[in-house]
Amino acid sequence: MITDRYFEHVEALFKRVRETQMDNIRAAGKMMADAMMRNANIIIHDTGHIINSEMTGRSGGLVAPTYLKYYLVTENPGRPNRAAEKAKDRSQEGMAELVFNAGSICPGDLVIIGSVSGRSEQLVDLALCLKKHDCQIIAVTSLEYSTQVESAHSSGKKLYQIADLVIDNCAPLGDGMMHVEGIPVPFVPASGLSATYLMWAVYCECAEELLKHGITPSVFKSANMPGGDEYNLGMENRWKELGY
Q: Looking at the predicted structure, is the pLDDT value of residue 52 above 90?
């Protein structure tokens, strides 16, 4: 059964994360706690797979991490397929500098960036911009994948080569975990599953580190529980004042 194989692959993936990434997970948790204690922001950005949504604003989750999303949208309909239009350089390198100036990120902030391949022009552009502005970067990426593909950025760099700390999500090349007869490409991506699994472990390490310092981290309560909205508002105000 394909489903039985799926569960076996997931269990093996999680086991590999535990066996190979615990030192990096602990280091990431300490980096998060240190950032909170020095009143820095913790920002999470990924390419849309999962951790932007999973790791921010969740009941039972830490209040401090927030997300970064940005898009360039241009409304300019015209005649298609003209030679001059095709000749344009469509690169968006440099847009990250505009994002940095427009957003709330400041030097010294901690940014967690998730990308399974770590090769995209936009992501590498962002990472280089953040390093230029003295931000810390934790990368959640696949080293097996990233080391076998070319960067799309003019620097030739990939995310894992820029970050201060790299956590390997242990996804295979191409991301799909399973080869299924009748399906021509690998089936079921690993990176979203492992990234969520290891990031909640990072949050656990962060909470443990804060508690060692006598600090109770702000954690969201379910808004569907009695008093949830009021409680969460209090937690958000506490985080804005204290950083944790």
A: no
